Amino acid sequence: MEWVLAETLLSQSRDPRVLLGALCRGEASAERVETLRFLLQRLEDEEARGGGGGAGALPEAAREVAVGYLVPLLRGLRGRPAGGADPGPPARHHRRVLRAASAALRSCARLAGGPQLAAALAEEALRDLLAGGPASGAEAAVEVLAAVGPCLRPREDGPLLERVAKAALALALGADRDRDEAGPAEDAAALAAGRLLPALGQCGGAVLRVVWSGLVAAGAPSEPDCVRPQLLVLSALAERLLPEPRADRGPGAGEEEPDARRCWRFWRTVQAGLAQAQDALTRKRARYLLQRAVEVSAELGAHCTCGPQAGNGPSLFWWSEKKKDELLKFWENYILIMETLEGNQIHVIKPVLPKLNSLFEYAVSEENVYYWTINGRTFRELSVHQVPRPADRKWFSIGIEITEVFSHLCFSSSRRNEEDVLQCTMITHQILLRGAAQCYLLQTAMNLVDVEKVSLSDVSTLLMSLRQEESLGRGTSLWTELCDWLRVNESCFRRASASISIGLPETSSLNAYVKNLVQEYIKSPAWETGEDCLMPDWFEAKLVAMMVLLAVDVEGMKTQYSEKRRTQNVLRIFLDPLLESLMKFGTNAYMPLLETDRCLQVLLKLLHTCMLKGSSAQDDEVFTFLQSFVMSATESISEFILRRLTMNELSSVSDLDRCHLYLMVLTELINTHLKVGWKRGNPIWRVISPLKNASIRHLQEIDSGQEPTLARQIQRVISMAALAMVCEAVDEKPELQLDSLDAGPMERFLSSLPLNHTLQKPHMEEQSSFFEESSASQGWGKIVAQYIHDQWVCLSFLLRKYHTLIPASEGDVLEPILPAIQMPVRTLQSALGALTVLPSDQVLPVFHCMKVLVPKLLTSSESLCVESFDMAWKIVSALSNTQLIFWSNLKAFVQFVFDTKVLTIAAKIKGRAYFKIKEIMYKIIEMSAVKTGVFNTLISYCCKSWIVSASNVSQVSLSSAKNYSELVLEACIFGTVFRRDQRLIQDVQTYIENLGHDCAANTVIENTKREDHYVRICAVKFLCLLHGSNVSHKLFMEDLAIKLLDKDELVSRSRTRYYVNSQQHRLKNRIWQTLLVLFPSFDQNFLNRIIDKIFQAGFINNQASIKYLIEWIIILILHKFPQFLLKFWDCFSYGEENFKTSICTFLSVLSHLDIITQNIPEKKPILKQALIIVLQWCFNHNFSIRLYALVALKKIWSMCKTLHIEEFDALTSVIESSLNQVENMPGTGNAKKNWQRIQEHFFFAAFHPVQDYCLETIFYILPRLSGLVEDEWIAIGKFTRFTDIPLDAGFQWYLSPAHLCELKPGDWAQQDAGSHSGEAASQSEWMDVQKKIIPWKNNTPDLDLELVFQDRVAKLGKSISRLIVVASLIDKPTNLGGLCRTCEAFGASALVVGSLQCVRDKQFQGLSVSAEQWLPLLEVKPPQLIDFLQQKKAEGYTVIGVEQTAKSIDLTQYSFPERSLLLLGNEREGIPANLIQQLDVCVEIPQQGIIRSLNVHVSGALLIWEYTRQQPLRHGDTES
Fold first, then answer.
1. Where are the alpha helices (DSSP H) in 312-463?
2. Is 252 exposed, middle or buried (0-12, 13-18, 19+ CB in 10 A)?
3. Which tens digits make up the pLDDT trace of 346-375?
4. Model-wide pTM > 0.85
């Protein structure tokens, strides 16, 4: 268009002065200036060809335009605003004019002939640039310099070029130094780097050396903000700083220009860009420079080495021609991995993960140590840049796999990266995943950290980022590994700058550090010795306790074969200062408060941390020593605590934290004494009774009407907390029972307390001091809530202790001794009031009280109980997003609402409570769909309460369970359909669990059994414990079976056809699995009631896995009760329209006739009937039915021959000739292959319905072999790990014949089509991968499919191409319909789809507009694609994938072969990685926009058109 415009102008007049003068008059609009540029460029081209007219007129005219028009125009533009990052229309117009005027100026400088004009314009622009005027002026100056710079002479204008180069570099590198100068200034800097510097680079090596010297002088970036401008400049000059060898260069040309590959600052900048850059564009520039350097090295072929800044460290980069192939592969993998991570899609990473293995193996080999410098940075890219997105859990899950791999590397400094990951990702994720990530990150730190560059203080700081309760528990494999690492490296750590002599002449540096740590910790700072100081933070206590125990265990490793006493001696040396202080507690009343707090804190942390995980505490000498240590200080500590709690020494708000500390220490002292052996005269015994009495006295005094001062109110809260602690201790440890079982003073006092009584605020004169404290500690509302909470803790203790005294109604007690217990209605009403005032994290004791009260009152006060159900559920459901307190509250809620007594009474009276309980039950199940583990809590509690024990389970009555059988029914069919990210989290969690003790998180974290599988496992194990000999058990199982069959019928009616692995498929599969589990309890009478429903299910069009289960249960029924054979024969007498392929189900049953007739003495009538039925189906027109009938015929005939039945001799020739014919058919075509495959299929060849009947076959082997999605496989190990329900020794849990476990999914796909099995564990490295997909799981039934197109096309009278379009991976009917129409319009030979049923879809038909009637369609399901593609390759087709991959070819550069097969990807996942390996070529469509992908129909249409466009041209060339 520009050329046409210029030609049109020149046709009007050949005099350039006239044309140029006309354009220079009038307003300088963007269109006018751009037209001037077009014309000048056209004149410049003519001048270069020697065809310019006007000889001397043109240079003069160009000079006049430049001086008289363009220069003034540019001067005027310098003062105008240029706009910011998002310019509006005026700013965009300004830039258009500026860009066009600068380009026109360049043409004028060239047309003017002399160099003086270019030099003068450059001088003026440089002055403006150095003057530091408005940002728009700088932008205009840069545009002018970029335009005229290439016109300057390298020799004559050398000084000017150097000054311009220095100014441009200073502008480009200074872009991020002053962040206030955003917008235009930043644009000018980017313009200088992106346009001016590359333009100056064309002026010769001298200018380039000036720029390079400036870059080198700037040094490697020390901060992330400095990386961006340096990489911008380097990437803009990459072609000059990393030059490729060119034929047009002179012999010495290469020496004139610098080689950035040999400069360590260049590589440090690239490293910083890869690891520290915050924006994707900067990281992309760093990858580009790395890729360019590798490509240049490969082209040059010369040896290249770049060492570190100083010393003899590893090389930053080197190249050797001898290892060219290895190095190219290494860097190609590295760059591909980094690019893939930028995609920020989880399914992109899996195909690339295998490449990590080869990358790491090559990186850490002895001869390639130098690669650590860059590859170690990948850790941050993988773990820090991508993982820490709390809302994006998928990155966290992948991060676990990645950090496990990186834990085997040895890199020099990554501690800061570790801390970043820990701080960002340890908060919001599932506890097991969180713990596993911490384990691997610590292992990574131990392998990556250069111990000579870190101190023990740095190590301890990193360890504090971990949570001991989730990962670093003492006694775990991780703890042992850490101790061994400290032992090996303890003499290598960097020494602290100020080392203190401790007086341990022969001790290690670790011991010296720990002893100093303890001493410094116990010392109280002089400025914090007052009585009003706040309690210290727990961080330091945790740190000291961990380091003490680590040092002791390290010492134990050293002395395990020598002096065992040394370990205790070292521990004694560490703890002597602590013991000395603790022993003064009881005698020194003036000890600094901060010192007492610290001592008690570290004592608690020592006891908590010391507990070994996964082993016996009796074998631990450290724990034994700590016990004796605590015992020796018990009297002093307990007297101190008693004094502090009872002598009015705690009087401020901050003292409530100290009260909590004292009570925790007291509880721990009680636990320690109970472990050692409780003695009635020990110090704790002497403390508990006075504490209880003093607390009651304080509460009575305050109730007597004294003024509610702050000190008195605080003492009241403390006294109630002390009573609550005593009640909890006595409740959990009966040895502490102080009084007889009769109600004592404490019980009478607590029972008489006014419930939910709020504490009055202190008087006004104390308000100011209170509010000053409350800002640093708790508010008064929290204090009151804690007081009420402690009240209910005490009441919960009383209710459990005296539950037999609770009357069914309050009228039965005239003068109650214990009002709160003997007046239950009032107490339950108070409980409802407490739920309205208590915060959610304080309601547990109220739930515990309700658990005792509701069963007593459900009959007499049902409405009150229903109200308590309602309010409690509102609280629990509101907490569903609060991880810390939700699970404990849910457990307590379930325990009181679904208590066996409550369920029994509610079912008996069938009132509001019964229906409210069922309503809550379904709400819990509904919540489970979005919050994993909720249903687990309910079903586990109910099943455990219904099963007393495994020994007397047969005597347990299930009258209560029968009324709530819907709960068991829902549990048997429960399971969510996970999204991809949820499935990934489940997969990673299973992977972590399977690691066992190798991952410390499994040892430390109690298995919560919250995985969805455990709901079904619990229900199935519960059913397996029931016995058919027990009437209530039998009735329960029969009722459940009927409900399961009704549910199956309902699902079938809801959708007659359903997709593989859809929700309907999964539900039906779970239903029939449960029916198989229940089958042993079915007797003949019950089967008479349900046999018709079972047979009817066989006629429904089901997926493969469900057909196998139905066939299996029919075989078991006929084997156990042969009298049902008559009904079975009737199934073959329906009209043929009712059968279609469903008759294959009954023919499959007949193929196991030997098992069915196993217990029948007279087999002849049955065989005769079977032969009559099977023979007629052998001649059916449907090929699949004939195959199944022939399999059954072969089995039946072999039985007849074995039994030598003479009556069948007349049929011998017919049957054997038929079988011989199918066995010996010609070797080509589908028939013979399918006959072989169906015989080898596991269901006919290896599966034994009776011997293989076990849970493993039902829930793991059969789903796996039938192609059910992995989410539905339940490994037998999960049944054994779920210990909430005991095992039934009488049930066959494991598989007898082991060979069935080892089978792989069979090739016969008549009923399995559409399935896929699990991804292989040991996946080989893909040769090519796309950048936005997840690998398809590998299972491809080998169907030999034929394309029979030509006859049909000939009948249609159409001429067709040799293009086959494969759309089997496409899901949406709209896309398939559009493709069908496009293929038909352009004459494709065939369209391959995943299912021919799609043509019936209205959306398909709406877009195809009957094209399917004129286009050959072929069905090839996704699992069959590999075989299909290989078959087409053998026929000479080139398999072409439409995908963006690492090796894809631009569509505009690709020439289509005549025989082309076009494979289109899935709408979301593209082409799976395993299918990419089958492609001959990948073609991608060039794109200019931001969106990286097109609709699959649009993509296919573009390639179909390009194929169609090329073929006629090619045929025309051939003919000519």
1. 324-342, 346-349, 353-363, 372-379, 393-406, 415-425, 431-448, 456-463
2. exposed
3. 556 667 767 777 776 776 664 544 343 344
4. no
